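Objective 1b: paired records.
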Amino acid sequence: MALGRINAADFIARLLPQPHERDLGVGPAHHLLATVHTDIACPPSGHSIGWSDCYAAADMLLLPLKADLLLEPDDEPRPIPDHLTSEARERAEHTGRYAARIRREARRRGLR
């Protein structure tokens, strides 16, 4: 009997259990962290992975894991690369600080 293909994404939990998801950040937080990560990872000069694919890969992560994409191992925001300018740079700086708060609170709550 042949088995059909199963989409693994159907089994990946993108959201934390409540009240953690609500307390750490809701839908806009997911979009903001994934967008800033993708802006950093995909410079205008080009990248081997397209912007939308990079965004989709980041977007499927839990909120604390998305925050980790923007943080150094000591939970401080990563330096902002030079290819981000003006509004994108300001958004990245703000989001890095936000990611650090999410990570600290997630650790306090025992979340990964």
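Objective 1b, second protein:
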Amino acid sequence: MIGHITQNRMIDCALIAWALAQLIKLALTLLLERRLDLQLLLSSGGMPSSHSSCVVACTVSIGKLYGFTGPVFALAVVFSAVVMYDACNVRRSAGDTARLVNQLLAHVERQTAEDFADDLKIIMGHTPLQVLMGALLGLGIGLLA
């Protein structure tokens, strides 16, 4: 199965890991909150991190197929680390800022509905646990390459 979607095993592993992470988010929301939120299939944030699962699956499959000591694997590891750091820190901080701005806007007297039509997106980043779970999912998928 892996290697038959795009004819590239690394891309297939990344796509499968991303899709599984998104489906797990949907299933967890359905199970824990008793609601079906199909927007989760394409949204960022939440458990597990699809960013982490995607890059780790790709990285592990590169290592498994071409060796864990080469420069391509090293580049993939650094890329994965940057993506996971960003998912856990930079994007999470942006989400925290969006939450505060939305709270401030809730207390501002609005002149018209168009003045503040859209709230900022709050769920942008991940907790360290969400990143770890996404990385473990990606590791499992990458090992299947």
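The CA atoms of residues 35 and 106 lie 26 Å apart. Helices lie at 9-33, 50-66, 71-106, 128-143.
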